[in-house]
């Protein structure tokens, strides 16, 4: 009878847990599914390349060796780099689509990719719940962590439908690994460690952050030894996980991350040796030396580290890549121009961390403390991962949609720990108040997540700052794919490289994972100098020649994008700084002009003063402040609007740059007079909108495609997203397009 009651209780608890987790999963899917109210596509930039790889694997009937390595180097020569850090999600997507591929072809892969992101929203909830519940044996802690995942704004920005967020998939697979490793240790069944190798293998080939995984496991093992919680079951469980993971990753095409697959296998085995070394020393060392055991192991690890660094230095290889070194030493980032211009690499203020993670960031600290006091190897690994990811995200926020999967379970453990301590003190009110505060915070997070999800995919908005569908980029990419030769070469700023490469099916100068900083610098110089300079770079550095030249072999195009405002039949580059309000003639840019007068100058090494007339900007602001001094609030508002026009306070060098001339000529050939920025006057008596620019007709570059798609219209002025394509031609020649 007692055994029947026990079984019945287990079944009831299992059913209850299933219902609760299923409900939270549906909530998570519903929040991310809000983006499905807009036209669907692959979301973002890198995800297009992952989708392309999935198509190649599906076409090869699931053979992941069929995907050629990506080429990131000097055009037209190039060299291959590893694709192990991009192959996991394409492989999973392709395998899931194979039963339908014969009937539906590429559409089946596309459909699977869309539904895979919905599955991620649910699986993240399950992984968080299982990992926390197995560690704490607390349904409350598990549910809190699951709810944090479900409503997290940080898991919405990049995880919209079609996003293929490899970092988030890596986080989910890591949580499943922690769950299985914890079961192996607690149930004293080391063979569960072999099962844990499967999600760990998937984490490594999907995310590619396996060096981080290896180092964090080493750190967790070291802490485990320091707190004297190592045992034979732990060592055996980890060893089985390590051996099977190393075996599985050995099948991955090429390498993963910056270390070889062989080094990865050895690094995991090193952790196993460390655990068994501790057990051996425990048996052989006299009792009076037992306390020195951790010191001996520390000395051994330091010796290996020094030998490794010395060996790599002797080979002329840096042991830490620049991106990771910038996390360890944030000051290093300011020495690398391209890192200083990418928002995802710039250290974030505390307010941004609070926006992304909410109250969970504080609760996770309590979870870290509990893991340090009670955690086994699985729990200590979660602790190390949490500390490293929170610090790493504060320095380089591109990790936020991975870090959420580490913060959430630690926060759930923190709630469990705090509630338990309060109950031990027989305090009934405080636990309820704590849960109430957490609940209110989660409601606020849910609102932020819904707002973030209520956004079209980037390519559908043409990457504009406003969530309004327009198809300027889609039209341009379709034109490049269908109306240009298959061997054409396309130049653009690196942001749009994967779009052009995958959707436009064209070779590009740079794209979203380009490793060659020099090549990106040359692209910045092309945009920032005049057309003669650009032509010389194309011929001398990239060995492409203009149409009409005796050396012509490769059709070469250059693409740029920005907003354009049409007011009373005249064109103003950029969008109004007070979009929706009265048009004052001052505009701003989040397109290529804004990037040129900022990121490109930094990367090219040009002083911004060569392009932006700060004196003109300051004089304009002072003049407006003086004229509207009778109304200080209005004066300050107008000054702020003018200040946002910073990218358009051009010097003569900016006016002669290729990027500016491309947009001016592109508008003029459509019969729009283009008004010169900062020639308007704003006074208490009215607005004079300024002088029109003289005709621009470049000799080496001719416009061949212009896409203008409406973004905003209030019957007074119209704002368009403009994507322009020019062909590289010999002076006097006419483009065949």
Chart the SSEs and their pairings.
Elements: H1 2-32, H2 46-59, H3 88-104, H4 106-136, H5 139-151, H6 166-186, H7 191-207, H8 210-226, H9 232-249, H10 261-284, H11 293-314, H12 322-328, H13 330-333, H14 337-341, H15 350-357, H16 360-374, H17 377-395, H18 400-424, H19 429-453, H20 472-483, E1 489-491, H21 497-503, E2 507-508, H22 517-528, H23 531-540, E3 556-567, E4 570-573, E5 575-576, E6 587-588, H24 592-604, H25 614-627, H26 632-643, H27 652-655, H28 658-668, E7 681-683, E8 686-688, E9 701-713, E10 717-728
Parallel strand pairs: 1-2, 1-3
Antiparallel strand pairs: 3-4, 3-10, 5-6, 7-8, 9-10
EC number: 2.4.99.21
Cofactor: Mg(2+); Mn(2+)
Catalytic activity: an archaeal dolichyl phosphooligosaccharide + [protein]-L-asparagine = an archaeal dolichyl phosphate + a glycoprotein with the oligosaccharide chain attached by N-beta-D-glycosyl linkage to a protein L-asparagine
């Amino acid at each position: 009878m007692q055994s029947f009651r026990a079984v019945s209780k287990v079944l009831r608890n299992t059913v209850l847990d299933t219902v609760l987790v299923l409900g939270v999963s549906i909530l998570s899917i519903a929040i991310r599914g809000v983006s499905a109210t807009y036209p669907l596509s692959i979301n973002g930039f890198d995800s297009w390349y992952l989708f392309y790889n999935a198509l190649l694997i599906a076409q090869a009937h699931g053979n992941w060796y069929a995907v050629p390595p990506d080429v990131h180097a000097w055009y037209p020569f190039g060299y291959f780099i590893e694709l192990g850090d991009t192959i996991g999600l394409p492989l999973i997507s392709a395998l899931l689509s194979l039963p339908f591929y014969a009937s539906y072809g590429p559409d089946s892969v596309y459909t699977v990719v869309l539904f895979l992101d919905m599955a991620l929203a649910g699986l993240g909830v399950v992984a968080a719940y299982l990992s926390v519940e197995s560690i704490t044996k607390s349904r409350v802690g598990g549910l809190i962590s699951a709810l944090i995942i479900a409503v997290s704004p940080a898991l919405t920005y990049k995880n919209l439908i079609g996003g293929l967020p490899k970092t988030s998939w890596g986080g989910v697979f890591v949580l499943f690994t922690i769950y299985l490793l914890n079961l192996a240790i607690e149930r004293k069944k080391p063979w569960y460690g072999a099962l844990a190798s499967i999600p760990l293998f998937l984490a490594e080939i999907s995310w590619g952050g396996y060096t981080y995984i290896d180092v964090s496991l080493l750190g967790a093992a070291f802490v485990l030894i320091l707190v004297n919680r190592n045992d034979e079951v732990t060592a055996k469980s980890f060893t089985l996980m390590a051996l099977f993971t190393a075996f599985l990753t050995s099948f991955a095409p090429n390498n993963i991350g910056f270390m070889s697959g062989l080094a990865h296998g050895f690094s995991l085995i090193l952790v196993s040796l460390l655990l068994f070394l501790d057990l051996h020393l425990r048996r052989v060392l006299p009792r009076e030396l037992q306390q020195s055991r951790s010191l001996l192991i520390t000395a051994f690890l330091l010796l290996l580290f020094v030998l490794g660094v010395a060996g790599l230095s002797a080979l002329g290889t840096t042991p830490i890549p620049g991106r990771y070194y910038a996390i360890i030493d944030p000051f290093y980032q300011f020495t690398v121009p391209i890192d200083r211009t990418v928002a995802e690499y710039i250290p974030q203020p505390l307010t941004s961390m609070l926006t992304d993670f909410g109250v969970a960031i504080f609760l996770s600290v309590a979870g870290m403390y509990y893991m340090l006091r009670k955690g086994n190897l699985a729990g200590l690994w979660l602790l190390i991962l949490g500390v490293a990811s929170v610090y790493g995200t504060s320095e380089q926020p591109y990790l936020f949609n991975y870090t959420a999967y580490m913060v959430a379970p630690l926060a759930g453990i923190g709630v469990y720990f705090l509630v338990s301590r309060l109950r031990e003190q027989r305090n009934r009110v405080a636990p309820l108040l704590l849960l109430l505060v957490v609940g209110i915070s989660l409601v606020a997070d849910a609102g932020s997540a819904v707002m973030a999800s209520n956004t079209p995919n980037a390519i559908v908005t043409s990457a504009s700052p406003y969530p309004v569908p327009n198809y300027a980029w889609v039209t341009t990419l379709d034109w490049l794919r269908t109306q240009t030769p298959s061997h054409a070469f396309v130049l653009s700023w690196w942001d749009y490289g994967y779009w052009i490469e995958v959707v436009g099916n064209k070779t590009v100068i740079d794209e979203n994972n380009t490793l060659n900083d020099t090549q990106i610098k040359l692209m910045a110089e092309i945009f920032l100098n005049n057309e003669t300079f650009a032509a010389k770079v194309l011929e001398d550095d990239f060995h492409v020649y203009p149409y009409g030249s005796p050396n012509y072999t490769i059709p070469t195009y250059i693409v740029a994008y920005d907003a354009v405002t049409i007011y009373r039949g005249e064109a103003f580059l950029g969008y109004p700084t007070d979009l929706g309000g009265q048009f004052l003639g001052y505009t701003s840019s989040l397109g290529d002009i804004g990037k040129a007068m900022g990121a490109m100058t930094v990367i090219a090494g040009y002083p911004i003063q060569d392009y932006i007339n700060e004196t003109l900007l300051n004089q304009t602001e002072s003049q407006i402040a003086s004229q509207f001094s009778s109304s200080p609030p209005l004066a300050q508002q107008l000054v702020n609007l003018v200040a946002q026009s910073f990218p358009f306070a051009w010097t003569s060098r900016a006016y002669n740059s290729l990027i500016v001339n491309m947009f001016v000529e592109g508008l003029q050939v459509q019969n729009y007079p283009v008004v010169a920025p900062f020639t308007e006057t704003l006074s208490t008596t009215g607005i004079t909108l300024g002088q029109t620019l003289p005709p621009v007709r470049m000799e080496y570059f001719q416009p061949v495609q212009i896409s203008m798609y409406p973004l905003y219209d209030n019957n007074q002025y119209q704002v368009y997203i403009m994507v322009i394509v020019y062909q590289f031609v010999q002076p006097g020649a006419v483009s065949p397009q």
